[in-house]
Amino acid sequence: MLNRNNVEYEMDQLLKSIQIEDYSIVLDLSVSGQNGLFEVTVAVMDQIILEGRPDDGKHTLSTKITVPPGQDLRLSASTSTHTHPQQAVITGLMINGVDIFKHNLWVIDRQRFTHDDGRLEKNCSGLYHNGTWELSMPTPLFPWMKQGRIDRSEVKYLDHLDFGISGDEYYSLLDKIFR
Amino acid sequence: MTTDLLLIAVPMRNLSYPPMALPLLKSILHSHGHTVALNDAHLEYYKHCGARDDSEFLRQTLPMQNAETKSWQQLEDSDFGKWIRGYTQRLLDQHRPRVVGLSVFSLVSVLAAYYMARVIREQAADGTKIIIGGGGASTPLNFPEALGAPVEDTLAQTLIVEGTIDTAILGDGEEAIVEFMRTLDNDDPQRINRIKNFDNVPYPDYSDMDLKSYPYTNNLTLPVTGSKGCVRRCTFCDIPDLFGKYRQRSGRDMAAECIHLYETYGAKTMFLTDSLVNGSVKNFLEFTETLSELRAKKNYNDLQWTGQYITRPSHQIPHQRDYYPLMAASGAVGLGVGAESGSDRVLKHMDKKQKISDLFTELDYFRKHGITMVTNILPSYPTETREDFELTIKMIKDFQPYMADGTMEKIAGISPWYKHLPLNRWKLTPEQGFYHNRDDGNMWWYSHNPELTLQERVFRRLAISKCLSELKIPSSMDQIYEARRIAKWYEGSKDNYQQWLSGIDEYQTWSAGA
To answer: Residue A101: closest CA among chain B residues belongs to which residue?
Structure first.
């Protein structure tokens, strides 16, 4: 039976696995200028999903990965064999069916390119030089993404019930019903 | 100069769009030669209170929402009571009406309606007729004893029995009000009126409504009604019996009204008040096809519409008729779908005629065509076990990617729990293990799912709120207000509830062993 002593523990138990940890990632990579020597490595976290000398054209790469909440979901592409004008550009990204380029372009603003000499370039969409392209996103991913949409929206959403230490309504209701 | 009818919309209701009953009845009665004056008391009281928004206003006015015991003197001494006296007197002096009509939107308006009716009876000239209508008129006045009011099943009956009002027009008022104004008599105030024909109903006349003052969610929003009743017979719902057989207006005419409201009042969003907009797929297609054409032809790209929508299995969707592309092209946004539960077992008990997989298939189509959805959730259906409820939590978890790309904007309504109303389709009896208190639909217990006690129901409702909070999923319902409402109800009903439970032997036996 639920009572004031166990109700919060029961709720925590019920909600302990509400976060999505399994991500299905589909990434589009457009390659040009391949001369047979342009080597590219693409990875999701430490899982390599492309390694080699991709032909010119669009490559759709996909993988599934589990990322426990609190870690960053990190996508990366790197090369050390680049010569001008070779390119390997990230042109599409879907995560669990969410088209990031179409609906959450602001996420892509987090992409970075680190040159071999350590110089950092912001908002770089892929490999135009030798170095590593990277996109890191905090997890749990979807609450972060939803909050990002809310923060960028003009719509004023209602506050959630406060379940923290100053949640008067919540604790008052618990005390009334369960004590 | 006197006015034939002074129509007043009673507080409290949602302010996201103006009430349609008033301007619609005005149009109808004008076409029969009557003079009608309108006033939305809810909007006026909102202005008087100076609340920041609708949600703050609803929180402020909770004591007036039929959720706690109030004596007549307490009503008289309240800010609302004092304000109403001045407000109604001004309206009566200004219009000197032959008839005063009170439009009572829902259960939360009932206490305010009761008070207003008594004040108007006191203030109005002798011989002035007073009538009430609207969904709230068919629901009970809670805690009538404290007000010295007779205990009746509905507010309408309470006011008629004590002699405060002359009659009530329940159900659809479009045809019944014309007959009443002709004779100033109503032979059967308990009759539920049902509109027979939409064809000759004029468009609502909003010309003397203060349209600029409503706190719309996005932009100027006006209601449109395309149907009455429902094609489904979900067991938790009273709409089929309340509204009778499903009746649908021509889709072409609905589209024309949307254009009329856009052009006449500058309304950018039309809120379809139907229990469901796609009850008849044929009419729905006629609506979306016509509106798509008119929208494109007139270049009204910012015209959009929203409403309640039912999910059907994919094989029932006429894909060959461009069903989803037409919805998108007609400006469909934020369609409200009753997801209710994440358990197929419970959905079957509810007779929802949909499975969870149907909802997610529909979401994928919506995503593909850029249509947005909001969902309603009904936890604690009498047969819902904890395992079933866990599936509802999983369903919310699975909504996340759709929330993240905007296919789902938010969760819309979340009921506290199943409420047993007399006209609901769920008809089990104590012999079948279902016990309920006829005076309060919140009080029930089902012996075949005994763990679903009031405490468990509150727990599940709070769990949904916490889940939404942790997943950053917004809701159109003010969760703080909802928690206060539950607390208010419990404070006022605890003794009755315990007394009622103590009379159920089967419950006593179960709880002793639990």
So the answer is: B405
> Measured between CA atoms, how close is B72 to chain A, in angstroms?
27
ipTM for the complex? 0.96
Q: Which domain holds residue B45?
A: 3-193
List of domains in chain A? 22-152 (2.60.60.40)
Task: Tell me the nearest-neighbour CA distance from B412 into chain A, angstroms.
Answer: 11
Cα(B443)–Cα(B445) distance, integer angstroms: 7
pLDDT band at B97 (very low <50, low <70, confident <90, very high): very high
- pTM assigned to the model: 0.93
Q: Total domain count for chain B?
A: 1
Measured between CA atoms, how close is A88 to chain B, in angstroms?
A: 26
Domain holding B74: CATH number? 3.40.50.280
Q: Which residues of A, range 48-107, sit inside 8 Å of B by Cβ? A: 95-99, 102-104
Q: Do A143 and B470 touch (CB under 8 A)?
A: yes
Instruction: Tell me whether residues B401 and A150 touch, CB distance under 8 A.
Output: no
Looking at residue B422, what is its pLDDT? 81
Tell me: the pLDDT tens digits for B121-155? 999 999 999 999 999 999 899 889 999 999 998 99
Which candidate, A98, A102, A15, A172, places its Cα nearest to that of B491? A172
Is B163 contained in some domain?
Answer: yes
Mind listing the pLDDT tens digit for each residue in B267-282? 999 999 999 999 999 9
Max distance between CA atoms of chain A, in angstroms, equals 74
Interface A–B counts its CB contacts (< 8 A) at 127
Residues of A in contact with B466 (CB under 8 A): 11, 15, 161, 163
Angle at B227 between CA B225 and CA B233, to 5 degrees: 135
Alpha-carbon gap, residue B137 to B158, rounded angstroms:
10
CA distance B386 to B449: 10
